[in-house]
Amino acid sequence: VENVRLLDRLSSRKAALGTLYLTATHVIFVENGSEARKETWVLHSQISSIEKQATTATGCPLLIRCKNFQVIQLVIPQERDCHDVYISLIRLARPVKYEELYCFSFNPKLDKEEREQGWKLVDLTEEYNRMGVPNNYWQISDVNRDYGVCDSYPTEVYVPKSATAHIIVGSSKFRSRRRFPALSYYCKDNNASICRSSQPLSGFSARCLEDEQMLQAIRKANPGSDFLYVVDTRPKLNAMANRAAGKGYENEDNYSNIKFQFIGIENIHVMRNSLQKMLEVCELKSPSMSDFLWGLENSGWLKHIKAIMDAGIFIAKAVAEEGVSVLVHCSDGWDRTAQVCSVASLLLDPYYRTMKGFMVLIEKDWVSFGHKFNHRYGNLDGDPKEISPVIDQFIECVWQLMEQFPCAFEFNERFLIHIQHHIYSCQFGNFLCNSQKERRELKIQERTYSLWAHLWKNRADYLNPLYRPDHSQTQGTLRPQMAPCNFLYKFWSGMYNRFEKGLHPRQSVTDYLMAVKEETQQLEEELEVLRERLTNLQKSQLNDNKVKSKRQDRSKELGLSTSNNSLANTPQEYSNDLKSFPSRSPSQGDEEDSALILTQDNLKSSDPDLSANSDQESGVEDLSCRSPSGGGCLPSEDSGKDSDEAVFLAV
Amino acid sequence: MEFAELIKTPRADNVALHRPFYPAVEGTLCLTGHHLIFSSRRQDNAEELWLLHSNIDSIEKRFVGSLGTIIIKCKDLRIIQLDIPGMEECLNIASSIEALSTLDSVTLMYPFFYRPMFEIVEDGWRSFLPDQEFELLSSVTDEWRLSCINKEFSVCPSYPPVVIVPKSIDDEALRKVAMFRHGSRFPVLSYYHKKNGMVMMRSSQPLTGTNGRRCKEDEKLINATLRPGKRGYIIDTRSLNIAQQARAKGGGFEQEAHYPQWRRIHKCIERFNILQESLIKLVEACNDQSHNMDRWLSKLEASNWLTHIKEILTAACLAAQCIDREGASVLVHGTEGTDSTLQVTSLAQIILDPRCRTIRGFESLVVREWLQAGHPFQQRCAQSAYSNSKQKWEAPVFLLFLDCVWQILRQFPCSFEFNEQFLIMLFEHAYASQFGTFLGNNENERFKLKLPQKTMSLWSWVNRSEELSKFQNPLFEANSLVIWPSVAPQSLQLWEGVFLRWNRPSKFLDEAQEEMISIIRYNKELQAKVNALRRQLAEMETDERMQENL
């Protein structure tokens, strides 16, 4: 469709005219005219809703909301075209078969071996070994070999050594969807562990001997402690209501030596509505401070984040400080339980705060334990009531922790945002389906690629420059402030307003430091080379040196020419290197921004090549600023942007 | 008056000091004329706390048996608690602190007694003189002149002795204009935008009154700042409604009919008691110890503090935009032209002028646009968020300005030579200081108090390399561009460094800061090493070549 206008949400003045293409996998908008073809690509799987609004004089507006929080407003001149696009998108955005998803057609040009290698990057058997199991207390059980006991569990499950197959099967029959207690995290230092399950089918009075034995076995696997925490992550009221349906929670009297604890995290429906409300706030055209804060509070989002964090902190504390094992469950044990177990693991074990460890963590607590990715993130057309931002909340918890512990994580914010993006994108096979069983049936590993390998390949982009393996924040358990900590939880504009670049800090400290570190590394290498050359030279000079003392006088006489020589071959080489740093320029966050700046600054001149020139300029200027002799001025450009002007002028 | 008269119990032993995030410490409390000094008696880890009496905003006392407790709330928002055994001692100490922290005579304040322990390299009182500023200006334009019309503070009591005005307007005309402006604050130059020659002027409201009085000289003066055929903008920091109401009291605004070349824009920025109330509510919310997430956000919202930040920044961005983008000159005023006007003109300069983003430049900005421009620091900063005595002149106008600067700094973390600590330091010294810089309400009062002779300037202390190093931003790279901050609610944040400074653990954030500094320092060291080696190598290579040639 031609002559479509892409509106900028913040400023109605800045609409781009272009052509809209629909392909099998993407919606593509290509801007007309500009030299550097500006394109907007949206995967069909990212589309969460499409809204056709009332036709106006200028055309028919179409609003596309994406799961990665991008909002695209298009105006299509012809009503008929708009309708066609609308109908096609509705169909395309809701595939009914897995085979329709992008990952089955996505080909990153890797051969079979590389693909297999990619899937091997994260290996859970290795991970449990790293934790220290199997050992004297824990073993792998093959009871779920063919998903015979629980179809949403993995085949390899770690259980206490004293839990026999009989106990496991018996316990599984007493648990929702047969999700029996299994090991999530084991703490080598004190034998305390985190186990997870679903709710017991206790109703008002039912008991199950095997289930009681199972919990006892878990407690006994931690000989240092004489009791076990059972954490129900639901609000007490919800748990009680479940009893009427023959489900419920553990009765402390029936289980020996357990301490039962409710931690009120709301269910997926509450969370879905909360996100919806928060996104409405994010979408407000030009909200006042009160609109925004009031709306944010009203959404309850941060309150929910805090509830999840509090649960994680409670468990981490029990394990690390009290040395007590914890069994966590909610209703089915695949949403809140996954959130809480992974937050606790992250707090407890520095390994999960590394890039690789974080992949392992998601694979362990989310993918393998049957978090229903397909239902929650609506990859295939399904029940909208099943959709809920469960893992989004976990990812946000990590971000909140990163804000509080800036040196503790090996990865940066971008890493989290990209993972969130790909949970919805279906470009990689990792998060397809609802369980390991389904994935195996679909032969995901043979037919699609792994996200982890993709992220690992580009890991340089995801590094936190402040991370140092030997830093105190990267050791041991993280202990977030408990009280008063309300203000510690902040709105994450980097995620929820991630496509409104104008709202974010215009200069990124992370990018700046990463560039500095990269330069540092080059300097280190150069230093090495120079030292070597120096030693060689000194050797050779020692060999045939005659007039040692005169050297310095001479070089002084020839100062000019020598310095010229040395300068001639180095700085240029630098500027080339520097040019390859995408984010070096001081006032320009990224390419898109600088493009924006340029369109602004060169309003008067119509030289289309200016963009290229100026990019170089800023690179070079940067160098001069950094180099000790520098002091050159940047060309007088402004990092201005339209959107704000519109705001200021609204009198 | 002898301070000793006020101190009935100069010293108390076995006092326990409680602060958030620190274990309680036992030690000795001493009172002097200007300080409350607490020193722990532990030999291994002796700790001393020196608190200026003038930093104390309010004190509360409580008794449990004979153990008295004094809770001291400071202007820098810190709260400490002292447990003092003995009811009489405690009462004595409390009343002394109360008396000493509310001395009504300026000349009894600490700056008049303070003797610096550092070597004075540069007298801060002479660091930023109007003549130097004018010299810079005359190097780019000759359309302005330095007028000494206010030499004896005779024309405008709140203006400095010399001001910059259009060359074409003589002192006689200025006198007439002064009569037409509130508090005689006639339009003067605030900023000259080198890039396009546009200017920002500031003044107070015109005294048009209900019958629409006009003043030809006033019109001529501000028209003199326009290029032929160009229009300018008048930014009134009051809402149209309030500006209209002001006419009843003899004030008002520029009528279109008399100022046809000017377009007036009203941008409402709140005044005194509303701002003060906002600060009190905000600090209350920040000190709230409850665990309820909802209450925090609604309290933050109810304080309206961030709303004020947004309003002020928006007005400043608008002024900057008129100058830089519309290529128009701007006149800014509210009512008196001593508060919101200065917030707007100084923030606009930070946006427009890279010089104001350096340490020296920012100091100069504070001196020009706040101290010399007659912001009544003494009235506004007499009390802070905990004060019980509600005087109507108190308002966190300067703190709001610093907060806005911090917001811009947060959005452009590499464009400022100074760091957050620098801004916090200025906040502290504006409210309580050993230096005389922020004493008095204007240059006139400072002159009468003989501050330059009798007290030390803050700048004499700050601008020494030992101190400067604490305030330097390691990420700074000169950025000569205009920087446009975002004023969307998502982009504005609570300034934790000030408002949560005493209620949040900062260890991990401090560590991050250190890490950042060490990364950059290491990079610089390497750079120096590489450069040195390169030079050495080059020298040796030439040497060798020379020898080969020989």
TrEMBL record, chain A:
List the biased-composition ranges (Basic and acidic residues).
545-557
Give the positions the UniProt entry annotates as the active site.
Answer: 330
Q: Which residues form the Tyrosine specific protein phosphatases domain?
A: 299-343
Ranges of Polar residues composition bias in the record: 560-588
- Specify whether Coiled coil is a keyword of the entry: yes
Respond yes or no to whether keyword Transport is given for this record.
no
* Name under which the protein is recorded: MTMR7 protein
Which organism's genome codes for this protein?
Cepphus grylle (Black guillemot)
UniProtKB/TrEMBL annotation, chain B:
Topology with respect to the bilayer: Peripheral membrane protein
A single Gene Ontology molecular function, please? protein phosphatase binding
The Myotubularin phosphatase domain covers which part of the protein? 124-499
Give a yes or no for keyword Ribosomal protein in this entry.
no
Record keyword Membrane present:
yes
Matching entries from InterPro entries are given as: Myotubularin, Myotubularin-like_Pase_dom, PH-GRAM_MTMR6-9, PH-like_dom_sf, Prot-tyrosine_phosphatase-like
User: Could you tell me where this protein is found in the cell?
Assistant: Cell projection, Ruffle membrane; Cytoplasm, Perinuclear region; Endoplasmic reticulum
Q: An example Gene Ontology cellular component term from the record?
A: endoplasmic reticulum
Q: Kindly give the CDD domains that the UniProt entry links to this protein.
A: PH-GRAM_MTMR9 (cd13211), PTP-MTMR9 (cd14536)
Secretion signal, residue range per the UniProt entry: none
Instruction: List the PROSITE patterns.
Output: PPASE_MYOTUBULARIN
Q: Under which name does UniProt file this protein?
A: Myotubularin-related protein 9
Q: What is a single Pfam family found in this protein's UniProt entry?
A: PH-GRAM_MTMR6-like
Protein source organism: Cepphus grylle (Black guillemot)
Q: Which family does it belong to?
A: Belongs to the protein-tyrosine phosphatase family. Non-receptor class myotubularin subfamily.
Coiled-coil ranges per the record?
509-550
User: What keywords are annotated for this sequence in UniProt?
Assistant: Acetylation, Cell membrane, Cell projection, Coiled coil, Cytoplasm, Endoplasmic reticulum, Membrane
| GO biological process per UniProt | negative regulation of autophagy; phosphatidylinositol dephosphorylation
